Amino acid sequence: MAASGVVLTPLQRFFAQRQAKVGVALTATIVALALIGPLLLPWATGYTATEFADQPFRLTGPFGTDNLGRDVLSRFLSGGLTLITLALLATAVGIIVGMIFGTVAAYTGGTVDSILMRANDVLLAIPQLVFALLAVTVLGPQGWVLVMVLGLTHAPRVARVTRSAALNVINEDYIAAAEMYAVPRWRIIVREILPNITGPLTVEAGLRLTYSIGGIASLSFLGLGLQPPAPDWGLMINENRIALAVQPWGVMLPVLVIALLTIGTNLIADSIARTFASTKVSEA
Amino acid sequence: MIARLIAKRLGISILILFAVSLIIFFATALLPGDPARAILGQQATPERIAAINAEMNLDAPPWKRYLLWLGGLVTGDLGTSVASGESVGALLGDRLGASLLLMVIAAVIAIPIGLLVGIYSALRRGRTTDSAITIGSLVLAALPEFVIGIALVALFATSVFTILPAVTMRPPGTQVWDFPAQLVLPTIVLVLAVAPYIVRMTRATMIEVLDSGFVEMARLKGVPERRVIFRHALPHAIGPVAQVIAIQLAWLAGGVAVVEYLFRYPGLGQALIDAVTYRDVQVVQAVVMLIAVVYIVVNLLADVVGILSNPKLRTGGAR
């Protein structure tokens, strides 16, 4: 690959892939829409949210009204921010917790490792969505509950990936060197191990983000995520789907953006994986 | 050798199931709330509440309630629904069958399609069809199942064509399989949600196997291509692929809930979501436990397939 003598940085290799560009473009567009949407509100739509109250599912205005006669475009423009924020937070929780347990298990080894991995097996035996439903039953449908339960159900999956990546690193000479200098264990984990497993961790973060968006949107769609009257893409789909045949916009707009967003993040995750896979090939 | 491995795996599964039951029980049983009052309503007399508490063992210490609950699970007594006052077992009886029916049909369709498309893609590596399959499976794998479901409903049931029912109707006394047309859309959604992962894993493993020496050897010996693929290459790819199929089937146990909700399909998942909405703890406990059982059994089967199909383990004693 490096036959021309030009060594590409990982970022250049990432953007050399067409699917990476498409993924970044899709994700950036939808995130921009979610961020700027609320700011455009009164004058982008030309209607106040309540102008058509008690005219549910009419096709008045650019995209019509929803189940309570609210302007669909207004709801749509302000409905993405919470979804994206909650998904990012859930991903962060999952990656941080999983990373800590994964590296500690790999580096400590022995009994601690076995106990952590067996606990992992138990947690993995309950499907993510089912765990989320269990948590919502106990704690109620609130934003922080969704973040924590999705994050904590990501964690064992992240821990598994982190552990196997870290196991490849801990026998390297630079770890042994650091140990000889009596560098504290936490510092070896933070300064030596983590920087050397960023590849698999970024791939995992991209995947987890895709699943977080899907998970939070699914819970809202089930009526167990954000509660009315919050404007939210998942909830909009739930509220308006009975009128899909007569007023499709209230459903199709949010379905479309959720689809594009998850496709975008998944393309990014796959491109990151390919970026790091190609390093391995060229080094071999 | 093989029997010992399988027995060990079975033991681990039972231990995991036991640990899962602990998590489910203590997560839900310790939450604030008064099931007796929920059943009887606000006007309940203290005597009636005490009677229900005694009947449901709610005044017993938590560990004793756990043991009673676990005993009930094993003997098929799943408790009483707080919302309806009915027995949970009766409530879930035919729903379990309906859910399993949907899952089995989806699996029976998705597994061969996933394998064949994956193998085809691997054989066409680098060509246009392969790239199209790879991107297509990546896109489908990204989509939440309710997004796929709504797109299909709009396409086939409401907006473009109106050839398939958008929701499941089941008049009393009939079974879900009496109306095959209603099963079509939920099944397609599940297949589209599950197959992409099988395709991707099959493609990746098959590419690796097709590059190996013994496949080249078989081809050089003039073994027909079909035989090379299905008799020589595929068995070596089955282990990792079986793992992914298991993960996907196990995912079905949970993911079916969203699809059932979307199509108002009278299965376990819909019961679970209703129970969560009404905070009907006994039903939630029972359904989550049932789903965990399905999940663990499927994973166990996959590991057994992996062990049986691994040539190194199969001939391990002969070395």
From TrEMBL, chain A:
Membrane topology, from the record: Multi-pass membrane protein
Name recorded for this polypeptide: Peptide/nickel transport system permease protein
Keywords, in A-Z order: Cell membrane, Membrane, Transmembrane, Transmembrane helix, Transport
Coiled-coil ranges from the UniProt annotation: none
Listed GO CC annotations: plasma membrane
Biological source species: Propioniferax innocua
Domain ABC transmembrane type-1: 80-269
Transmembrane portions of the chain: 20-41, 83-109, 129-153, 246-269
TrEMBL record, chain B:
Pfam families: BPD_transp_1, BPD_transp_1_N
GO-annotated biological processes: transmembrane transport
Family annotation (SUPFAM superfamilies): MetI-like
Source superkingdom: Bacteria
GO CC terms, sorted: plasma membrane
Domain ABC transmembrane type-1 stretches: 96-302
CDD domains (alphabetical): TM_PBP2 (cd06261)
Membrane-spanning segments: 12-31, 100-123, 135-167, 179-199, 241-263, 283-309
Major site of localization recorded for this protein: membrane
PROSITE patterns: ABC_TM1 (PS50928)
Membrane association type: Multi-pass membrane protein
Locations listed in the record: Cell membrane
Swiss-Prot/TrEMBL keywords: Cell membrane, Membrane, Transmembrane, Transmembrane helix, Transport
Family as reported in the entry's similarity comment: Belongs to the binding-protein-dependent transport system permease family.
PANTHER family, per database record: DIPEPTIDE TRANSPORT SYSTEM PERMEASE PROTEIN DPPB-RELATED (PTHR43163), PEPTIDE ABC TRANSPORTER PERMEASE PROTEIN (PTHR43163:SF3)
Entry protein name: Peptide/nickel transport system permease protein
Organism for this UniProt entry: Propioniferax innocua
